[in-house]
Predict the structure.
Amino acid sequence: MNRLRKTTQEKVRHVLTFDVEEHFQVAAFWSAARRGQWDQLSSRVERNTRKISDLLLEHSTRATFFVLGWVAERHPDLVKDLAQQGHEIASHGYGHELVSTQTPAQFREDVRRSKQILEDLIGRQVVGYRAPSFSISSRTEWAISVLIEEGYRYDSSIYNRFRSAQVSKAIDTETYQLETKAGTIWEVSPSTMNACGLQLPVAGGGYFRLFPYAASRMFLKNLERQGSQLVMYLHPWELDPEQPRMDGPMLSKVRHYLNLGKTEQRLRWLLRDFSFAPINEVVRPIRNIIDGKDERSHANGASKDECVP
Ligand SMILES: [Zn+2]
């Protein structure tokens, strides 16, 4: 978890993120045949994402939206409206290909294309990236250099920091600066919890849908007592119980369709009970980049204080 130096009087602001993609684009159901049908399948992403932005507006909350370039091309007004409402627009790549199935050249083209599409729509720089299915690992470490060379300033795709990673500054185990020959980039990982040596993605929609809301609430309350911050992620399709069912492996079907009808109400309760904000606002090194106070010029590095909003 992201540790913050907080007094008990200060309210922790957690990080809320959404990966904006169609229900038929998830990696668990990927097939070459379905990939070929994307343009023929009925689109539900705009309606589902607008449901989320309405809900956030009701609770005066802003978030980070990692938008797929493919979606942005087809729903430009959605992206413009999200930006106008004060949400952070970041990149989820263009075609939702796993990093591990791309060559470095293909990956470069994918992240360059999505960044350009999003920046053209919102008229400002896109600095954040999240890989489909968090597919940056030690085997695809080259992707970090590509992101730096393509102008990204933070990544949110690494569950387990790999041993070979060169960390030049760290706020905690999940927010740190990676150093490569191409330069530096901040990593803002989704929160995990260590259970018997396994890093579990407890801050994802899968766990949010699996456990009763009371369990999520207790977990977050406990985090706040420790002065820790959650980096949470959800998908628009997780608030869409009516979405058409897809064929695929049984485990994928169970995980994808579990409790879809409960997500919206649980998200309402979450927004009522806790405070959330976008990455570029609540994670200070990223906020400094946005404000033009580049962390690279600070000789002493980042401190935990810099993560306090
Ligand atoms: Zn995705």
User: Anything to note?
Assistant: The two ends are 16 Å apart (CA to CA). The mean pLDDT is 89. Residues 19, 21, 92, 96, 132 surround zinc ion (CB under 6 Å).
